[in-house]
Amino acid sequence: MDRVIKLSISLLLLSVLISLNTFVKADGVEMLKHNVILTFNERILFHEKIADGKSLQIFNDQRDIIEHTQIVEDYEAALIEPTAPHHFIFSYWEMIEKENTIDVTPIFTERKAFQAGFIGGTGGTLIHNSSAIKEVVKSFDEEASFQAVAPDVLPNDNYIFNGWYYYKDSETLERLDITSTTKPQNRTEYFALFYEDTNQNNIDDAMENDMPVGLLPQPETITQPSNNNSNEVLTYTNTKYVFNNTNVNSSFLVKFLATDNTFLYSLTLPYGRSITMLDQTNKAVKEYFVRQETTIMLNLEDYVFNEAEFLKFESHNRKINNTEITEVFPIIQQPEIQSLLAVNESVDNAKANSASSNAGNIIVLTVVILLAIAAAAYFIIRRKRQANEHNATN
Predict the structure, then answer these.
(1) What is the mean pLDDT of the chain?
(2) Superfamily of domain 112-202
C-alpha cells in the first residue's frame, strides 16, 4: 500500500511540472528582442534586433571562440582588426546568424602586391564568396582589372546601383569611369553608392523633384549661345547641375520639405558631401550625396514617432576616416513620460497578474484531479484488501 501512495505522489509532482512547463511555452507572449550593433573602423557592419538570450560569438583565425556574450539587453561593440597569419591579410567579417548564436568570424586572403577596400553604401550590399557583406579588402596583382577585383553589388528593393566612387582628395568624392582597362589603385577605398528610385524611372528620387520642366540639362545645347533669356537659363543650368564634375569645388543649397511642402530645414554643403538623416533615436534612415542644389522631401513619421512632438531639425558634422559627414536629426519634445510609464506599468502588472492567475488555476486543477485519482486508487485497493482478509477468515 505504501508503494501505491508513493507512486501517486510521484505522478502528482510530475504532472504539476509538465502542466507548468506547458503553460509557459503556450503563453504566446512575443519573445523579447534587443538591438545589436557591430561596428568596424567606425562603420556599422551589423544592426539587427536579436532574440533575448541568443549568444554572440567572435572567433579568431583558428576558429577558436575568443569572445562569448549572451544578449540580454541592447548591445553595441566595436570589432578590432584581427592579426592575420603570415602571407595573408584580413579581408572581411563573416557574420552568420544561427538558431542560438550569431557567429562572427574574420576571413583572410592571400597577400599579393596590391590591396584595396570596397565599401557598400546605404541602399545595398556587397556580394563576396556568396556572402552579403558591407565591406571587404581585396588583394591583387598589378595587372588585375577593376572589374575582376571589385565584388558584385546587390541593391535593396527600390534602390539602384549608382556606380563606384572614390575620394579624389579629402573633400571630393568622384565617380570612377570603369572600362576594360581600368585598374584599382593600391591602398584606395572604393564606395558602392545607390540611390532610391521608388517610381522605377531610373532617376534619383531625391533629385528629380528639384529639376523644373524646361531646365532639364541638355549637354548638346549648353555650348550654343543665344541673345535671349534662354541663354541665361542654360548657363545657370550648366553651373547648377553636375555632369562633367565641373562643380567639384562648389557648394549647393540643400532644402528639406515635409510631404505637404512645409519648410523644415536648409543648409549649404560642398559637392560630394554625404548627408545622413537620423531619426529621434539617432538611427540612420537615409543617406544622400550633394551633387547639385536640391530639395529633399521628408516624411516626418520616419523620423519622429512614439507620440513625440517635432520641434525642428538641426545638423552637425562628424569626421570618420578623414571623411566629413553631415548628420541631420530632429529635435523633439517627449510626451509626458511619467504618465506613459504608469500606463505601461499598469499594463505589465495586469499581464503578469493574468499570467500568474492562469498558471495558478492550471496547477490547482491538476492537483485536484490527481488527488482524486490517488484517493480512488487507495479506496479500491483498500476494499480489495479487506475482501481478501474476509475470505481468508472464512
Answers:
(1) 76
(2) Listeria-Bacteroides repeat domain (2.60.40.4270)
